[in-house]
Amino acid sequence: MLNFIIRRLGIAIPTLLILVVFSFSLMHLAPGGPFTSERPLPPQVLANIEAKYGLDQPVYVQMGNYIWGIVTEFDFGPSFRFKDRTVNDVIAQGFPVTLTYGFWSFVVAVSVGVSLGAAAAIYHNSWLDYLAVGISIGAQVLPNFVMAPILVLTFTLWLGLLPGGGWNGGQWQYLVLPVIALSTSYMASIARITRSSMLEVLNSNFIRTAKAKGLSNKRIIVKHALKPTMLPVISYLGPAFVGMITGSVVIDMYFSTGGIGQMFVNSALSRDYSVMMGITILMGSLVIIFNMIVDILYAWIDPKIRL
Amino acid sequence: MSMVPNTDRIKEMADNLASMEPIKGRSLWQDAMLRFLQNKAAVTSVVVLALVVLFSFVGPYFAVWSNEEIDWSRIGKAAELGAPSIANGHFFGIDNLGRDLYSRVIQGTQVSLMVGLIGAGIAVIVGTLYGATAGYFGGRIDSVMMRIVDILMSIPYMFVLILLLVVFGRSLQMLFVGIGLISWLDMSRIVRGQTLSIKNKEFVEAAVATGVPSFTIIVRHIVPNLMGVVVVYATLLVPGMIITESFISFLGLGVQEPNTSWGALISEGAGTIAYGTIWQLLVPLFFFVITLFSFFFIGDGLRDALDPKDR
Question: For residues A275 and A263, is the Cβ–Cβ distance under 8 A?
Fold first, then answer.
């Protein structure tokens, strides 16, 4: 097990490095530095500013400093657009919001998806099964940027039940629509995967043996069928997490929740490279670490994987 | 009862046999085709998709307003005067800038379909060659090549894609490059898996024994045998590419005005639902949804038709 974790770290760390180097070099290739404006600055002033931000040093030194700053002090440097803010300020402001509704979306997607899928498999070919299959087919064509306006149209404009945007400190009314919009398509995928996996498990020999022993249905499902059913579901958690992290950009933009995705798009539109890079690296690291945890969890449940 | 057979009958049978057509064998693809045609959802989807494509080519000939014309008499009054109407030539209504939604939707359809097809095309070519090479050579080459894919896959590419678009300017070409960079990863994995099972077959051994160079073996003997998987996966990739492009355009970082795409149109419509111009959301959404549905059903149908496991 320890060996596996070490090997998995051996993938995660180079991936992180590649991500940092890639985004850093991209930023350097960008036409126009952060201080080129319509009115050219006097060369002396420009040189002073560049010296202040360390831009007069060779690229590899800058990159080294940048990585060193992140690793030792969790410091992503100053914002290039707003002189009074650092990237850390931006992250500190937006990240809790994204984390809150992201967490709830993940919980909803997994719990509802697994229950729906399992129920569909247990009551195979019943109305519940057809409902689950219908939802999972329909949700394929309803990604978050389609769900969001449809939800607002229904629940805000027609029914007038829920606010169509804003955050208000994370009150539950403001959470409902973002969570549904973000979680639906992943909930549907998880339901589909759980259903087909459970159907396969329920038809396998060891379940037949359990039935022959005279175990109750409930015991068979909880004790024997659930664990092998979860394997493909767990391997989907990684992609689902990535999808939700990316989807949060749309949720933030459409519902104006003030999360990190909104910061990202705004910085993209105003070419605030350092903020973009900071957010990319932060989200990338989250994804990479999460994928690693999922892999380790998978290996823990299914020892065959460790070989 | 005589033991002598009825010679007339025998002769008749012989004549019958002689006049019979030789039985034709059905190729793998004909077989698959037959199975596909029995799948009603898939066949309907082909028709729907054909209609959408036809609409994007023939539609402009019926347009009263071009996509660049502004209807000055209705500008700024989309909610009151802009609803879809046959009488004034705005079949799908207008937006608040007085632009005709019918022409805009046609333009968006063309762009979105093109992005989908080109993205999937790059994935097919690069992914197939990459995956087949890795799978065929195996060993260290395989593990290095696949490790690269692993690493690229675990990066949240949407952020990197947006970074690329911001740095190199938001153009359609850049969008293609960006989507092309990531679209082939899944394909290469699937193709590699298939190649591993094909490469030990006798016909590959025969090719090796007769001294065919590796690259030729891959292109001439391995890749044609992968086509089933590739076709199925490519059909499922097209909607994925369309969703990716729409996602970026929804954020306002994709195609730029006056160009448009489904994502950009949905985004515009989604931003104006509060003003009562609901057609601005529903029309592009309708085309988006039916096209995606069609691709998914066709992909499922093809998988059922071509997947050897289900036979």
Answer: yes
The answer to whether A101 touches A269, Cβ cutoff 8 Å, is no
Question: Does residue A35 surpass a pLDDT of 70?
Answer: no
The span from the CA of A46 to the CA of A56, in Å, is 10
Residue A6, chain B, CB below 8 Å: the answer is: no
Distance from the B38 Cα atom to the nearest Cα atom in chain A, whole angstroms: 20
More confidently predicted of B192 and B151: B192
Chain B residues close to A264, C-beta within 8 Å: 159, 162
Q: What's the token pair of residue A37? A: 């404006």
Interface predicted TM-score (ipTM):
0.78
Q: Do A153 and B159 touch (CB under 8 A)?
A: no
**Nearest-by-CA chain A residue for B270:** A149
**How many whole angstroms separate alpha carbon B306 and alpha carbon B226?**
11
CB B170 within 8 A of CB A33: no
For chain B, say whether A16 makes contact (Cβ under 8 Å): no
Question: Is residue A168 within 8 Å of residue A174, measured between CB atoms?
Answer: yes
Question: Is the four-CA dihedral B206, B212, B214, B215 of positive or negative sign?
Answer: negative
Helix B157-168 vs helix A226-255: angle between axes, to the nearest 10 degrees?
30
CB contacts of A245 in chain B (<8 Å) are: 156
What stretches of chain A adopt beta strand conformation (E)? Answer: none
Min mean pLDDT across B92-106, B109-123, B228-242 is at B92-106
* A72: pLDDT strictly greater than 50: yes
Given the structure tokens 């945890």, which residue do they identify? A293
Q: The tokens 């590699």 sit on which residue?
A: B192
Quote the pTM value: 0.81
Asked whether the beta carbons of residue A22 and residue B160 sit closer than 8 angstroms, the reply is yes
Distance CA A80, CA A35 (A): 8
**What confidence tens digit (pLDDT) does each residue in B85-106 have?**
777 777 787 777 778 888 888 8
Q: Are B262 and B246 in contact (CB under 8 A)?
A: yes
B97/B77 Cα distance (integer angstroms): 9
